[in-house]
Amino acid sequence: MAWTDYQGYLCEKLNQLTAHSEDAGALTKTLTIKYARDPSRASLFNHASMAHNNHIFFEAMAPDPSPPSQSMQRQITQAFSSFESLRSTMIATALSMFGPGFVWLVALNSPQVSSPSLALLTTYIAGSPYPGAHFRQQPLDMATTGTNVGVNQTPQAYALNNPTSTNQLLRGYAGSMGASSMHNKPLAPGGQDLEVLLGVNMWEHVWLRDYGFAGKRQFLEKWWDKVDWAVVEGNMEQTPKGRMPFKPFGR
């Protein structure tokens, strides 16, 4: 259901939302980051983010998965003390989630170190783990601004006609420094640049039908046994355009 039915529905909905536009055929990650801060395109963001998250979840599973390399195991031990500790911590984190979402294993990128450090991250509903999609902005209260917004004009058009400090981010760049400057990095306050390595989907439609209300732990344990660590390490080695590459793991 989670792949054949739900993922198919998400892709079909995305095709409808982007039909006959510049976004037709765009990657789900590209759409997620592009529209994370656009309140008028919340539906497009939600469907793109969920499709991308779900793809990461399924991509890292295999009937006969590859074990982690020695290099990967050293990296895990450095961050979590042992491979078993990562397993137990990730499962415990997923079990503690009250509601649908994802638990992610991520590699934190820092200019101070030559190789990334590993950490766990949770997101709820269709939230994205990528820093470019954090700090979602909706500077206009659509319940109080007026009925003309969202009907006769978009929030961006409203911002252009009402130049206040609360909506200046929708109007474009301003100045050479500060939150609205063209030099500002697209990270939330305290945000951390990262690469997503592995994710587990905790939406109920993924596990409830096969494992029942009390079967979350059983689902997670079986999922862990099917994680393909060759895919995880491949995700580690992929870097966005313009970033200095991580030091690749040896095998």
Question: Major beta sheet, specifics?
Answer: 3 strands, antiparallel
Number of strands: 3
If you average the pLDDT, what whole number results?
Answer: 78
Structural class comes to mainly alpha
Apparent shape: globular
Query: Looking at the chains present, what oligomeric state does this protein adopt?
Result: single chain
Q: State the helicity in percent bands.
A: 40-55%
Structural write-up:
With 251 residues, the chain is mainly alpha-helical. The protein has 10 helices and 3 strands. Helix 1 packs antiparallel against helix 3 (42-59) and helix 5 runs antiparallel to helix 9. The longest helix has 18 residues, at 42-59. Residues 137-151, 163-173 and 239-251 have low confidence and may be disordered.
Summarize the structure.
The chain is mainly alpha-helical and 251 residues long.
Characteristic terms for this protein:
globular; three-stranded antiparallel beta sheet; 251 residues; single chain
Please write out the topology:
Layout: H1 2-18, H2 28-35, H3 42-59, H4 70-80, H5 83-96, E1 101-108, E2 117-124, H6 155-161, H7 168-171, E3 194-201, H8 204-211, H9 216-225, H10 229-237
Antiparallel strand pairs: 1-2, 1-3
Helix pairs in contact: 1-3, 2-3, 5-9
